[in-house]
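Researcher: Structure for this, please.
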Amino acid sequence: MNKFIGNLVSWLTLFMVLITVLVVILRYGFSIGFIWMQESVRFMYAAVFLLCAGLTLLNDKHVRVDVFYLQMNNKNKAIVDSIGTILFLLPVTFIIFYFSWDYVLNSWDQMEGSIEERGLHLVYIMKTFIWCFSVFVGMQGISTLLKSIRIISNSYIGK
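Model: Predicted structure, token format:
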């Protein structure tokens, strides 16, 4: 699921660049500005950052200090991944989801929109990406944990 959603949403980066170029051309070339167009870039950035995080974890492209990790064998990497997932990743995704609950629900309750009159009035959708982030990264964390447990158990069975 993370692969599908991440690959689909990652195409927004192309549209972000194209719309940003268009905004600059319109503003500085023709003195025309559209707030909704500028806000759409921010919405797409939020979508790419939050909805592609699970894909980043799936592909093991997240930020990590690899000083020791690179030198480890697969079993030790799996142990580090398991500990990191249990102690850090899963609790953080739960905390983000838990503490954003009222924030997102209030936004939906108010059908929160832009503070600009001609802006995008879909802020509640953008805030929902916070929940999606927590769910997608949490699910990928569980998958990583299960994979690590399999690697660890196979290393003991193989001996």
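Researcher: Any notable elements?
Model: The longest helix spans residues 74-110. The helical segments are 2-9, 12-30, 35-51, 53-58, 74-110, 123-157.
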